[in-house]
Amino acid sequence: MISQKQILIVEDNEINRMLLGEILSADYQVVEAENGLEALSVLKERGDVISLILLDITMPVMDGYTFLSIVKKDPVFSSIPVIVTTQSDSESDEVAALSHGASDFVAKPYKPQIILHRVASIINLRENAAMVNQLKYDRLTGLYSKEFFFQKVKEELARHPEREYDIICSDIENFKLVNDVFGLPAGDRLLREVADFYQSQVGDKGICGHFNGDQFAILMERRCKYTDEMFMEATARVNALPNAKNVLVKWGIYSIEDRTIPVDQMCDRALLAACGIKGQYGKYFAIYDDRLRSRLLREQAITECMESALREGQFEIYLQPKYSVKEERLSGAESLIRWNHPEWGLQSPGQFIPLFEQNGFITQLDQYVWDRTCAFLRDWDSKGYPQIPVSVNVSRADIYNADLANILLRTVHKYNLPPSRLHLEITESAYTENPGQIIDTVTHLRELGFIIEMDDFGSGYSSLNMLNQMPLDILKLDMKFIQSETAKPVNQGILRFIMSLARWMNLSVVAEGVETDEQLERLREIGCDYVQGYFFGKPMPEDVFEELMKKTDREKTGGREPANYNNIKEKQTNETE
Ligand code: C2E
Ligand code: CA
Ligand code: CA
Assuming Cys at both sites, which of 116, 471, 488, 538 could form a disulfide with 492, CB separation 3.0 to 4.6 Å? Predict the structure, then answer.
């Protein structure tokens, strides 16, 4: 039967071989060898299925002890238990056998029941040990498995209450990509290489474990200081492994202070720290602390309720007016999102947009903003207000959406609007990240009739010589840039230069974050086309914005009150903050 366990009998005496074979063959499959050398070649051929070796000592060609010492040095075969058959009950033979690494001995003449019992119990013992080992070590990498790592850490901490330890966990940010691109075997190979790397770094000074997938953990004595350089170097070494050139490793550190916290929780915290910096370029490691803890808890709370919040209409669109400098009149607006949470109150975008950009929810939210904005425009048109355009923000995740143009087109068509009523604000940093892709997408959007504004221009990402390659209609100057430029003497800033560059490229210019009269005057003087900022109006709910529109409308139809921004400013309802 194929499922029978195999026993190798090594014995030069044919009669003895037969006797042993007779005793064992009822329960086992028996393989025979006449001396040590022959036995070695049997092991080479089928050593992986041999459950036990019965070994004679005195044999020609290669004796039992020589065979035994070779086998015990071999990493693969050393775990096969060996029972030595001794000539007599002599104690010195038995001691010699055991000291060479035999598991047990049986004396000649053979007593069948004793042999069968010893063989069975030793095979059993070995199988149990193998099972324990399997639980102890991760099969892929040979490092400690998760559970056993926890156990070892616990023991180490208990053994050395005087030492200070850290747990360092790592997570490979784009490991899935390695599997997808190079295949699972390559992914496994990489994990083994990473494991070797960890083991070699830690040596016997720490404990290494491999958790699920691409997560590793180390317990080490605390270093005085962790620096970016240390982890950059470690990442560079991982990158030098085969198929790992673009692998990004994020490291999280948990400094063990309170030893009553379960080890698995310590590891969770280190991993949380590592995952918290996913997607953050140039960030290699993070240390878990209470601030991180509350941030992560908050992010978790946001993630849990964001979808229902969208369904329940908790996201509200505020509009911030834009004015034409020359005509001093309302000329447009920007849609800015607010989250009116039933418990947390009104949340500004800074508190949730970065998270949504990370977890991808931003695309859904943006589409909602585009849809609501078009609904406003339709409604205002039907009320006969001036047909101003409104700009919406297009985040970088939207740009990578192959369906972006269709989605936008469907939205304006749904409300029977020409695409030119929607201005698309795309942040300057998105332009620099992937110029090729963005040029294609934006060129297409412009061909469809959308107006493109480069948002946050001057915040320091793009070079001026990139500008003329970019398909654009409007430059929107960044608030910080405006505020620092308008603080300088006229002839020391570069505002005037940017204006003439924009003129030369046929672009209109919007200045954002205009807060004072002086800033407005400076912008007027250099010929800026549009302004937006608290000086004129904060972002406001739609009904308040509608009041502004009514005024503009009245002025247009000959009403007495002109809708210039000096008037509007005094009637401003401040945004609740
Ligand atoms: P942004 O697109 O640069 O929007 C301008 C921000 O500056 C707005 O902040 C606005 O309230 C603020 N602001 C305008 N004038 C002034 C001023 O005179 N002084 C000061 N100190 N601030 C001024 P907000 O509404 O908090 O939005 C922050 C950012 O969140 C936006 O920056 C934009 O990047 C993002 N955001 C807002 N709504 C959306 C949205 O619907 N989709 C996407 N993708 N991003 C959005
Ligand atoms: Ca914007
Ligand atoms: Ca901006």
Answer: 488
| pLDDT on residue 464 | 73
Nearest CA to ligand 1 atom 13: 513
Which residue lies with its CA nearest to atom 24 of ligand 1?
349
3-state secondary structure at position 529: coil
pLDDT tens-digit readout, 463-498: 676 788 889 999 999 999 999 988 888 778 889 989
Taking only the tens place, the pLDDT of each residue in 21-41 is: 998 998 899 999 999 999 999
Measured in Å, residue 546 CA sits from the centre of ligand 2 at 20
Neighbours of 89 (CB within 10 A): 10
Residue 508 in contact with residue 529, Cβ under 8 Å?
yes
| Higher pLDDT pick, 558 / 343 | 343
Q: Rounded CA gap, 356 and 335, in Å?
A: 17
Contact indicator for 399, 362 with CB cutoff of 8 Å: no
Q: Is the peptide bond before 109 cis (omega within 30 degrees of 0)?
A: yes
Q: Could you give the C-alpha distances from 117 to 52, 128, 267, 402, in angstroms and in order?
A: 13, 17, 46, 71
**Pocket perturbation via mutation, ligand 1, pick of 393, 427, 481, 516 by most ligand atoms within 8 A of CB:** 393
